[in-house]
Each structure stands twice: as structure tokens, then as C-alpha cells.
């Protein structure tokens, strides 16, 4: 697949065929996560709620799909140098695991204050983890320096067409699973950090069902997609915001992702930490799923009535389950 | 399907075709639960561990399969009378939900001290719940009296060929999923209460892979299958035993189930509450699954090294996720 048509990021669109090609490429290596439904959850929301349980994906989040799609396209001469990536979380785990599967070296830049479990997780797959100081070091410059020295390929977490195409396979799968159940989604919700997941999902959904609505969900204080969509241009979050949704702490939408998202998304929804904790509890009780805060945000929006879905069929992507026990238990206190 | 060949329970075998027929009957109504694998879990056990996540089934346990298979075979004249069942847990939820789907009345006998969440769960599906006193009332006599009066069919939790056949579809699915992943299980583990799940699974597995080993897993104090298999005849548990595995508190194996199990099972394994709590924690951390204690017992046996599976491929059925928040959190303390 070539994406060279557009020189200018603002003209970028993700071809639907890039997603179907990604699916053909990765399907043997990913888990087809189930589309779950609970009568009790339906009653709470007043709609048919289908939950795409992507927390059950390898490495505990959808990020494995994009990482896998990108890594499988390394040229033969690129494989010995491997991949460099920076992330404090799910992208790090996904790149580490994919590289381990493919026998390719991985170097991950993680902040000194990254959760111990995530650092250990990346190391457990055999990745080389380089810790850096958020205050004094520039991770992108460090990453480029390492890539130049080791002849490695930099794989960004979202602003990359093949990453978006890989994440878009979540959309392909949920559409096929809904169709098999005889259902046609009226709306689809997924959380947005850099916007790669929602860009891929929106492309799959709106190509197949042009009338379906697609919403990005974000925590309060990190509502850059909601405000950027309303403004028609990328805006930044104010510094200093706090949220338990650690996987959604990105200052502004990606360039390529926003080019896709501003055309395809219906809008953005915003949720509080309290609403997210309730959604984590409801996912435990009604679906028997472990949701990380960022993964529970779309369900939180539904439960909090941020969208009128009364009597409709709505799909919510539960995108990750990488949460430590203390944070998980905070949903019950 | 007719099961009339054997007048004597001890001669009963479950035909493989009863399981494939059950699968054809129920497949549109059940969730094909995923077969999950985690690199971290594999490292902990030292084997390839495939986890059949039946906690994600409708109503949170495998019981929905058997209930569905039985209820779909009600004769037209039986539908108005509906179903009577007794259970303090997962069978109650499954019968209630299936009857709600099929528009058939359900009456569930539950003990006065049943968990509130399970009583409320059964009621939420529209079942009529009749509470009884464990000390002074005989639930089977009560159930028969209600069935006679209302013209209802009694559906037992395990000692019924169609219930066993329904539970056996767990085995059919896991075999197909393993085959699709290019894997051949050396051993399969599932928990045993009355023995319906393990009887169905063993029939599916040993018919397809005669050399595979199949083990029943039970909590300490409720190891009636392990001891009955060793003795070659059904024995009872000593009264007064305690275990956090509330779904596995049955005094002795079923008659029909034991007739199947004593021919097909390799043996029984026993786990402590501490080992079960560790398995619940590991399922949370590595698989992002909510496991109830009884559902985590087979994983507990693997993690505690109760079986030498070094370098082998082993499937463990995680059979339910109906656990309240307090009990779940006890796995982390």
C-alpha cells in the first residue's frame, strides 16, 4: 500500500483498502476479540450496547494491531536494525511483543517515572528499555539518535498510516460481528489519545455504514479532539491537567489522524474520572472485563448519558485492560 | 437426540453427536468465547497455556450453554408451563436469561442466604424467585410441587444429557480454536461441581483427540471427583468443608456425569483457597479477565504445579466470572 498521494498532511485520508490489507496481514497473529452484550448493561443505558472487548487483545490493548501491521512490513534490510519507539504504556508493550514474535530487536524509550509494571512488561518481551528524564531529555531526539546509530526504524504510536490501518481492523471486526448478529450500529464510540484508533475505526465504519455516527471520547482536561473538531483545527490542551486515564494523556491530535478525524467524526464527548470509575465497575459487574481507565471512557460516556442513544444500537470499544490492582480497586471504593 | 439406550445410569455415555447437535442448536444464541494466550502466563507455567474465557459467556458462565440447549427442546405444549430450577448461582442466572430470551416462564428456587446479586440477577431477567430455608425446607420436593402445580419442566443443573451436551460445546469450540491456531492440546482442565461441564468437555476432547489428558479440578474439602475417580465409585464430601469456590459446593458427583467421567477423565486435581486467589490475580494481570473462584480453580492447579505440563500445550477452561467486588478484591490483599 502506498500513501504518497498527499504531500500535505491536511489532505491525508486513510484508504479503506489499507485496513482490509492490514487485516489480511495480521489476522493470523491477533485475537479476534469478542463483541459482547449484557442485558443488565443494556438496561442501564437504555440501548443495545455492544462492547468490543479489545482489552483481550495480545498485550492487553488494541495497540498490538497497529504495531503488528507496521512491523510485518519492515523491509528485509530493516529487520536487523529493528524498531525504536517511545511510549510509557500500551504502544511500548505492543512493539515489544510484536518484535519478540518476529525476532526483531526493539528499543523502547520510557520515562523514568513510567509505571514499573509497564517497564517490566516491555523488558519481559526482551525489549531494550532506555529510561529518560522527562524534564531534561527530549525523547524524540534521543529516539532519532538511537535509530541513526543502530540503523533502526522509528515506529510512532499513532501518526502513521500503517498504524492507523492496523487499528482500523478493530472497526472491520466489529462491523462483521454486528452483521453476523443481525445488528446495524447507529453509533460507534472509541477513546482518543493521538487519534489513531478512532481514525481507523471511523474509516472502517463510515465507509461501510455512511450514516453511522462516530464519536471520540476523552477525559476532562484532555479534550483536545472535542475542541479541535468543534474549531475545525488542531488545538492543544492546557498544561497541568490531571486524569486517571493515563493512556489518554496526549497534548494535541496527531496531524495525519486529525486529517482523517475532522472529516469523519461526528464529534467528541468528555468524561470525568468519577464517570470513568463507574464504567470500570460496570464492566466488571456486567461484562466480567477488566478495563483500564482510558479503555472505559467510551462506556463511561454512555452510562453518563452524554449521548442520546435511547432505543438505538451502539458499539463501544473497550480498548485496553492494562491497569494496576490499586487503580482498579479505586473503582469500588 | 434420544438417550434411551441405557436403563442404568452407570451405563450412560454421552454421544459426541449430542454435542455437535447442541452446538448447531445454540450457536446463534451463545457467544463464541475466545481462546486466549498470554506470554507472561506461559512463562509463569512453563507451558503453552490456552485459556477458554467462558466467563465472557452470556450470564457470566458456561451454564448458559446447557440451559439454552435444554430450553430450546421444550415441546410446544411445555412452553406455557415453563421451567423450574433450583440453584444459588450460575444455573439460576442461565435458566432465567434463556427463559427471558425464549419468552418462557421461569421459577427459580434459591436459598434465603443466596448472594443478593444472584437473586437480583435472576429477578432482573423476569424469573419468579422463590426463596426457601435450607434448614427446614427440601428444595427438590418444593420444586416438584411447583412443577406439578404449574405444569412446568424441571431442568436440573448437571445430571441431564442435554445439559451435559450443551456444556460440551465448550470443548468443541476450544478444539476448533486450538486447531485454527495450529495447536494440539496435550491436556485440558476444567473445574467440577456436579460434573456436567467436565463430562461434556471430556467427551468432545477424547473423541477428537483420544490421547489428550482431561482433568477435573476441585477445591480442597470438595474433592469428591478426585476421590471418586480414584475409588472407581461415587463418594461424598465430609460435611462442614469451607471454600471460596461457591460454585463448586456439591456433595458428590452426579450419577450420569460420573458414568461419563469415570471412563474419560485422567484424574482429579485439588487446589487451596490461597492457590485460587493467586489464579484470580494472575487472570486479572495477564489476561484482563474477571474470574470467579470456581472458574479460576483449573488455572490455580497449573500455577501451583499440580500437573507436570512442562513444554506442553494445555487448555484451561475459565468457566465463570460471577464474583462480587469484595471477594474479587480479596485476591489482591
UniProtKB/TrEMBL annotation, chains A, B:
Reactions the enzyme catalyzes: L-threonine = 2-oxobutanoate + NH4(+)
Lineage top rank: taxon: Bacteria
GO MF term list: L-serine ammonia-lyase activity; pyridoxal phosphate binding; threonine deaminase activity
Keywords (A to Z) from UniProt: Lyase, Pyridoxal phosphate
Names of the cofactor(s): pyridoxal 5'-phosphate
Enzyme class per UniProt: lyase
GO biological process, one term: L-serine catabolic process
Ranges where the Tryptophan synthase beta chain-like PALP domain occurs: 28-320
Pfam families: PALP (PF00291)
The protein's Enzyme Commission number: 4.3.1.19
Function field: Catalyzes the anaerobic formation of alpha-ketobutyrate and ammonia from threonine in a two-step reaction. The first step involved a dehydration of threonine and a production of enamine intermediates (aminocrotonate), which tautomerizes to its imine form (iminobutyrate). Both intermediates are unstable and short-lived. The second step is the nonenzymatic hydrolysis of the enamine/imine intermediates to form 2-ketobutyrate and free ammonia. In the low water environment of the cell, the second step is accelerated by RidA.
Similarity annotation: Belongs to the serine/threonine dehydratase family.
Protein's name according to its UniProt entry: threonine ammonia-lyase
Organism this protein belongs to: Saccharopolyspora spinosa
Amino acid at each position: 500500500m502506498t500513501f504518497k498521494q498527499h504531500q500535505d498532511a491536511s489532505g491525508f485520508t486513510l484508504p479503506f483498502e489499507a485496513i482490509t490489507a492490514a487485516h489480511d496481514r495480521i489476522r493470523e497473529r491477533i485475537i479476534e476479540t469478542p463483541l459482547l452484550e449484557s442485558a443488565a448493561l443494556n438496561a442501564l443505558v437504555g440501548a443495545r450496547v455492544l462492547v468490543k472487548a479489545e482489552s483481550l487483545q495480545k498485550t492487553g490493548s488494541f495497540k498490538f494491531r497497529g504495531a503488528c501491521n507496521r512491523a510485518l512490513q519492515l523491509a528485509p534490510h530493516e529487520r536487523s536494525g529493528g524498531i525504536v519507539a517511545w511510549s510509557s504504556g500500551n504502544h511500548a508493550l505492543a512493539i515489544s511483543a510484536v518484535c519478540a514474535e518476529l525476532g526483531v530487536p526493539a528499543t523502547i524509550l520510557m520515562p523514568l517515572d513510567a509505571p514499573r509494571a509497564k517497564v517490566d512488561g516491555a523488558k519481559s518481551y526482551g525489549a531494550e528499555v532506555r529510561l529518560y528524564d522527562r524534564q531534561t531529555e527530549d525523547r524524540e531526539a534521543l529516539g532519532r539518535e538511537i535509530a541513526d546509530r543502530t540503523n533502526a526504524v522509528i515506529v510512532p504510536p499513532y501518526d502513521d498510516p500503517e498504524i492507523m490501518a492496523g487499528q482500523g481492523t478493530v472497526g472491520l471486526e466489529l462491523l462483521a460481528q454486528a452483521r453476523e448478529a443481525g445488528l446495524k450500529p447507529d453509533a460507534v464510540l472509541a477513546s482518543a489519545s493521538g487519534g489513531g484508533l478512532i481514525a481507523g475505526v471511523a474509516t472502517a465504519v463510515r465507509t461501510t455504514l455512511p450514516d453511522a455516527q462516530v464519536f471520540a471520547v476523552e477525559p476532562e482536561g484532555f479534550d483536545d479532539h472535542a475542541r479541535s473538531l468543534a474549531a475545525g483545527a488542531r488545538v492543544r490542551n492546557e498544561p497541568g491537567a490531571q486524569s486517571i486515564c493515563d493512556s489518554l494523556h496526549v497534548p494535541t491530535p496527531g496531524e495525519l489522524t486529525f486529517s482523517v478525524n475532522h472529516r469523519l467524526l461526528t464529534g467528541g464527548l468528555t468524561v470525568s474520572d468519577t464517570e470513568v470509575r463507574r464504567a470500570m465497575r460496570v464492566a466488571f459487574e456486567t461484562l466480567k472485563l477488566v478495563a483500564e481507565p482510558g479503555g472505559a471512557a467510551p462506556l463511561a460516556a454512555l452510562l453518563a448519558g452524554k449521548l442520546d442513544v435511547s432505543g438505538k444500537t451502539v458499539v463501544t470499544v473497550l480498548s485496553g485492560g492494562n491497569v494496576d490492582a490499586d487503580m482498579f480497586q479505586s473503582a469500588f471504593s
